[in-house]
Amino acid sequence: RKEVEQDPGPFNVPEGATVAFNCTYSNSASQSFFWYRQDCRKEPKLLMSVYSSGNEDGRFTAQLNRASQYISLLIRDSKLSDSATYLCVVNIEGSYIPTFGRGTSLIVHP
Amino acid sequence: ETGVTQSPTHLIKTRGQQVTLRCSSQSGHNTVSWYQQALGQGPQFIFQYYREEENGRGNFPPRFSGLQFPNYSSELNVNALELDDSALYLCASAGDTGELFFGEGSRLTVL
Predict the structure, then answer these.
(1) Along the 111 residues of chain B, how does pLDDT read in single tens digits?
(2) CB-nearest partner of B98 from A32, A102, A103
(3) B contacts of A7 (beta carbons < 8 Å)
(4) How far is Cα B36 from Cα A12, in angstroms, rounded to an integer?
(5) Among all residues of chain B, which has the CA nearest to that of A34?
(6) A91: which strand partners?
């Protein structure tokens, strides 16, 4: 089983739709969690950190479920510009090594 | 702009050759890490340097080596190139919050 797993998609949604991605992790010692966005042929950029209590940034909501060992990203009112690959990143307590999922591809169409 | 720059942006090598990729990190960021990203995959951690010392390494063979310099620049060296080394190589510097700031990457093709 991979340490961090994501459904690669693509998720194909119309503008205005709500879409959610999950990311599961295998190591219960995982401590910090992030969502990064990567546009085609570009570098990843931090979208948001994921806090235990959940957090929201505009149309984006991130949640952590430690019991089931997954994090989620919810995007409301999707825009064409949201089309990208969304990477889940997990850091294990005491480790310097961030583990990336393979990414989930989102395509928002008119 | 992340303040992280990488060079070269693209290069082509043949099997068995050696390559050096360079990265200039954000000033003040003492941690730099390197990643390999194959097409359709997430970035794979190669190694990390903190104040010129390697302090973490992923599952890569010894022919992948690195250096970090006092001026916030670093290098990734790959010897005896193999076809499977073809990938995007990303350098990232880390802020105090743990956020990674990536450069635009060096796209290596091994023929």
Answers:
(1) 678 999 999 999 999 999 999 999 887 788 899 999 999 899 999 999 988 999 889 999 999 999 999 888 999 999 999 999 999 999 999 877 778 899 999 999 999
(2) A32
(3) none
(4) 27
(5) B99
(6) A32, A98
